[in-house]
Amino acid sequence: MTDAAGSTQAADSSTDGTPQLPPCPECASEYAYEMGALLVCPMCGHEWAAAAAGSDADGGDSAAGGADSANGAAVIRDAVGNILSDGDTVTVVKTVKVSGGGGGSIKAGTKVTGIRLAPGGAGGHDIDARVPGFGKMMLKSSVVRRAN
User: Fold this and answer.
1) Out of 27, 71, 79, 130, which could bridge 44 as a Cys pair, Cβ 3.0 to 4.6 Å?
2) What kind and span of H or E run contains 91?
């Protein structure tokens, strides 16, 4: 029985040894967790940098598609790391199956003009676009690249 009490104390001491994560700045939830260089709130889906004071020093970490904490605007990057903006023309880099509606697939190389960014879209779909032959739909930034 002393072993069980000893292991409980060891578990408590290991919990004290790990850094306590701050609550979510959006909804004040205490259930935040780490995902790479970001902290994530499972309650509202908000993502923020672990060290808000070091946001300029962590400029390389925002290349992963996170939020730019200096001005609060979301930075959305394409499959090769280019920053996307509203009105850009993008090219689909791999064939994408379309579920629902008519089905089918969007072939690699399809050019989509006049995109609109929609950060926080369902399932990681952060681009709102009109795809030729399919109509309006949401795309993931990981399957497009900005056309020059």
Assistant:
1) 27
2) strand 90-92
